[in-house]
Target: DUF2066 domain-containing protein
Amino acid sequence: MLHRRHAPLFAGFAAITVALALQAGPVKAQVPGAAPPAAAAPAAPAAGPGAVPAVPAADPFTVSDVKVDVSAANANAARDQAIRDAQVKAWAELYKRLVPSATAVPRVSEIELARLVQGFEIDDEKVSATRYLGSITVRFRPAAVRETLAGGGQQYVEPPARPYVILPVTVVDGRPVLWEDRTGWREAWEGRQAGASLVPLVVPDGELADISAIGVNEALAGDPEALARIGQRYNAGGVVVAKADLPAGGPDLGRPLAVEVTHYTPDGARDQQTVNVKADMADRAGDFLTRATTFVSAAIDESYRRDNTVASGPEQATLVRVPLSSLNDWVETRKRLGMVNAVTRTDVLSISRYEALVSLTHRGDVERLRQALARRDLGLARTGAVNAPVPAPAVLGQPVLGQPVPPAAPAPEWQLQVLPKSAGASQAQPAAA
Model:
């Protein structure tokens, strides 16, 4: 999904735009039993130059632009069937988006589909006496979808809660450009329609606050402070720099376009790859760059899937020992554990100034847990301990008053340790048998 924001030049123009949108907006509908749409709120005053932009919330559980073409005995029957078909198509699209290893989409009953679907919007429609053509957006209930995927026996991807900021950098005759000129590469990203992407992307407007937040050289160098500023400005879950080297007259359709894509996360992780896009015989310059944005978006999705796949199946608990040399070790451990989607719950059984005993509830076996932890630079290794009892819950070595003493349990066979940044990449691969 690509979210684009176009700020009005004048408050008067903004008011006119809102008025026209209210008169000619899309038809909105809800599934039976869903709450009716709320009344339109009064227009907010225009934001100042330094205000934080209003970015649409990331919603990977929404499938947009589902095309339907149905003929029936009458217009009402055709419309009802089209809505049902759109929901089935949208579920298939969402399933393939979240289950990367899927070879087929499991069929669901009408009752199950009604439980999964939260609502729908009719974006465009053409109706005749017996035929219905339309474009429909379908929204799904995240909790119901997660429950269905977790019980299906397949690994699935936990979607990002926030969008990513994408910075399209164009290198024109050796000169990198981000904000100074409106290049064809930037226009391709601004004009790209919302698609079936897993990771929602936001293209900054290039206002003064954006220019002050990050410059082109800071973007190319991956300056942490500048990346944090532009990410915080758009409440983003990450920043992606997409650098394309283009001649001054536009892309050379006679050779592939190599796009250098670098993804930065707030925790300091960095992932870089090169996406090569070949020109098609029927391509024009603008079409070629638009198609290149689709390839780059797919590469971003694939990178996200690789690091955020959640194992399915029943939950299990693994007891781990966390050695501590300082309070910061514990703070950093909790922070990184919070970013591991495979861990559904963390229970602290005891903690002292030297170590913590933690029960990690997760899906999948310990090997999958180890790989997921390694992607967040947390090392999980065997300790060799087998029979020492686990102490009662305590805080900083003192028993917790009023807490019942649990029965003795085996000591943790696993030790969890904070690794240096990017050191877990080598451990994220499956271990040899």
Notes: Confidence is low (pLDDT under 50) at residues 1-49, 385-397, 405-409. The longest strand covers residues 117-127. The chain has eleven helices and 20 strands.
